Amino acid sequence: MKKFNIRKVLDGLKEVSSSAPSVQVGPQENHLIQETLQSEHFQLCKTVRHGFPYQPSSMAFDPVQKILAIGTQSGALRLFGRPGVECYCQHESGAAVIQLQFLINEGALVSALADDSVHLWNLRQKRPAILHSLKFNRERITFCHLPFQSKWLYIGTERGNIHIVNVESFMLSGYVIMWNKAIELSSKAHPGPVVHISDNPMDEGKLIIGFESGIVVLWDLKSKKADYRYTYDEAIHSVAWHHEGKQFICSHSDGTLTIWNIRGQGKPMQTITPHGKQPKDGKKPEPCKPILKVEYKTTRNGEPFIILSGGLSYDTVGRRPCLTVMHGKSTAVLEMDYPIVDFLTLCETPYPNDFQEPYAVVVLLEKDLVVIDLAQNGYPIFENPYPLTIHESPVTCCEYFADCPVDLIPALYSVGSRQKRQGYSKKEWPISGGNWGQGTQSYPEIIITGHADGTVKFWDASAIMLQVLYKLKTAKIFDRNRSKEDKGSTEASDDDPFAIQIMAWCPESRMLCVAGVSANVIIYRFSKLEVTTEVLLEVRMQYELNDIESPDGGGEQTSALPTPGASPQTSGPPSHPSTSSNNSDGGNMPCLKVRSAPLKQSPGYQVDLVVQLVWVSGEPPQPITSLALNSSYGLLVFGNSSGLAVVDYVQKTVVLNLGTVELYGSNDPYQRQPRSPRKTRQPVTIKGLYKTVFISFYFVSEVWCLCCLSFMPLLCGCFTSLCFVLTVLLSVCPPRGANPLDHRDNSFSRSRSSSVTSIDKEAREAISSFHFCETFARKGDSTLTPCLYVGTSLGTVLVLALTLPPAGEQRQLQPVLISPTGMLARLKGSILRMAFLDSTGSQLPPAYEPWYEPNVSADGEEREKVRKRRPVSVSPSSSQDLSESQYAVVCSEKQAKVISLPSQTCIYKHSITETSFILRADVVQMSQGVCVACFCANGHIMTLSVPGLRPLMDVNYLPLTDMRIARTFCFTNLGQAMYLCSPTEVQRITYSQDTCENLQEMLGELFTPVETPEAPNRGFFKGLFGGGAQSLDREELFGEVTAGRASRSLAQHIPGPGGIEGMKGAASGVVGDLARARIALDERGQKLGELEERTAAMMASADSFSKHAHEMMLKCKDKKWYQF
């Protein structure tokens, strides 16, 4: 039965008014700050999407505009031009994109979807829009083909029929090629779906149709009958023409290629099995895997290229997917890291009837995009300039920083440029279309991503672009060789023991701190110099709480010191003598083993300190739930569901290690009941592990020593003993199994249920957030003190006052003292964010130390100078008048409060949500002022003014579809935010009205006016004897006058939103308007010039005809009829 708690009743009465939108508690302070932010300063919109298209399904390339389009299984379209020019579009239906076809050099794209719809996209605007759609009702679409410079689109279906669509009006023609007419009596069975359609490069009137069963038909469009039929006994996957139109090649399901002469119907002129073993007795080679696609490209001065995917023999088990390039007698097999979705050969000419001159192959893989240089020996790949490697290892956490110090991006780029791989093609990236935007937004932005393999990547995100700057591998400081015996219980092994869980970064000092899933924390310093670290300094921490009223009286235990004679060279710290610990079960061991060999550290981020929590009694350590560091104070703090620890990384000592219960002291508002001890040890996951009241610390070093600290009376009596055992690292910890934590898509680090108010939940009060600041530590203080604010999962804000030694040599020698000063506030839900304002309402960022080179070569004066450099404090001076108070802004999962300091009175509070909970909250600096930005689990994005907590924006943006969004969503200054919208893509959004207004200017142009290359010259003899390309008047053949109208029930025409309205939406300020006007004038002038030339040619032709007619009349004037 739950005990009655009068404190909770009083707290409930105090907070009855929280259901109101915003409550002013202290009216006397209302007039102090004039709020500058208004609702009109906010607008929410998507800006740009970066990363690799998730689950790609199709691809197309415009060889004149040099733009690449990729479609996905979720109906998304990603368009890529030159580096920095990319665009994202989405089909409303969300059906998979099965095929894409550019209207080459027309600024348009046709997409065919798995729901049997075809769409025409207008790419001549910055945000492409659909102009027309056509939805087939009775037939399934399987293949599309749009000939170069044609407006008639061929659509093949599952029934084997071919329909023809006018891409200008998106109306179906009455001309239909029926499957039974195409095959007639050549086959007794249905030939299967259409898998290929293409016209003869030399004769547009001849169409080749490939059916899945193995039948290929050469169809004469004019006579409406089949000229030839070619039958093979294996299913067809693709067909490709030789540019002269006399041969074509087919790829089959048994791993063979067949080359056919168009006039030879019986057998293929050649059959090739690229990867088949040729038997000596002349029999057919063994069947191989299907060749999914083949391309046949010719060169003017050499052998043709045959490029294919698939076709490997079945006995190559475990071999990676391959692309095969056959050129003359040489065959190159290029292994890929992922399965091949599609590939395209890039050629010099868009005309199919000319020598193709291939120069590159674009290979779309399931998780990568590779471009191969065909012109260089060995076929090297091009260095990919797009940010497509976000998912190289799954992203586990993100941080976003806008308006960073200006020297930061160049510094990261300079160290990151040394990490680049060698051996790329020396040519320029071939996908080079479009133009960059004209935006003026120029502040530096950095995105940091933490990954499952322990890597941390820094990205330059300035001006809506994304480029990788630097990559840090945190796993290299640990030993990877973990034997099965060393892994402990099966629960302790995990696929990703090095995964990054939380990151804390100070841009000004460049200090970086990362917490991993194996309960480890690593501190890094930035250096431009290479250094070899002989021994990595490591801290081992143990926090053990035994049951208060356990039957065996374990609660009476006190700390026992390790024996002074223990050898510091042993493989680990001495085992703890508590009866509850079972050392054979892996007691007092960390999850990972730090490397003992010297570590060469390249310029960039270099490890300074490693902190690890250890196993206790066969139980793995709790996951770290919160992390913060302050470069001015030289302190790192982290917390989990047991308590918190403060580490002084300057002196490499542990300053404080306290359980959450001890932070309250005698003022604990919760009646925590002791829990009965476990009768049997069972495999336990990380979540929910909790131990109760005894603390000990392991810190590996050279000498053993013991420090006892005395604390404020507030803490007296709340625990039996607090001691720190410090030793120095000469040895490294033995390996242990990793922490079982599914950190990917479906995990959440702490319980989010607002209805859980049980004693069990109260017993597991976790540390959820930290904030360092210079403020008033106690109620009524007159001076500012460095403080650490601690937020818990039960909504409590606690204050710890910090006493720091003076800067310089004394900072290295004197200890940092920490005094808990009590509870500041209590809110509903877990504390997410804390921040401070000065008396004018401006945000007070924490103090920081400017970056300096830690590996300076000088050992005397210069190093002293560095040490004595005073930290830059942006807090007010301690001598200011007390009337100029500060304001603490605290946001929890449910509500926000503003507390006036030093009086500690709550002057505003606002209930943000009652039915849901906040996933992410940040106090951000906008150009007009400061606000609180919140992302709610029900999909709402909200902003609140400070200090008044007035709602300024509330948009129902995005429902929480998976935990990835919750884990990666973050706000930053100047109205920017981001999250991972798929495992491979980052979506950036803005909630700033200014950015929304300027976005159109910032976006790049996909379409640029480019002249279409001249058609190949037919030559004198080909022109004389008719050997050149034969043109076809498709309008006459497929138009309504000749072919009639198609059945209305066959397909439904849907006008798209991208017509006039789409063009209106594409208006992008004066620059864009002028550019479009100039393009329109150029095109109009070009058309007028062509018209004038045609008129002049027609007049000359008419004159010539008149002259010849007159001469003929004179010649025949006097002749009789029989003389002719």
Automatic annotation (TrEMBL):
Annotated WD repeats reside at: 229-263
Q: Where is the composition biased (Low complexity)?
A: 567-584
Record flagged with keyword Electron transport: no
Is Cytoplasm a UniProt keyword of this protein?
A: yes
Provide the V-SNARE coiled-coil homology domain boundaries: 1059-1119
Sorted alphabetically, the Gene Ontology cellular component annotations on this record are: plasma membrane; SNARE complex
Ranges for region Disordered: 547-593, 851-879
Top-rank lineage group of the source organism:
Eukaryota
- Protein topology in the membrane: Peripheral membrane protein
Q: Which GO terms describe its biological process?
A: exocytosis; Golgi to plasma membrane transport; protein transport
Q: Which UniProt keywords apply?
A: Cell membrane, Coiled coil, Cytoplasm, Exocytosis, Membrane, Phosphoprotein, Protein transport, Repeat, Transport, WD repeat
Q: Which cell locations does it reside in? A: Cell membrane; Cytoplasm
**Do you know which Pfam families this protein is assigned to?**
Lgl_C (PF08596), LLGL (PF08366), WD40 (PF00400)
A molecular-function term among this protein's GO annotations: myosin II binding
The record's similarity note reads: Belongs to the WD repeat L(2)GL family.
This chain belongs to the protein called Syntaxin-binding protein 5-like
According to its UniProt entry, this protein's organism is Amphiprion ocellaris
Q: Print the organism lineage.
A: Eukaryota, Metazoa, Chordata, Craniata, Vertebrata
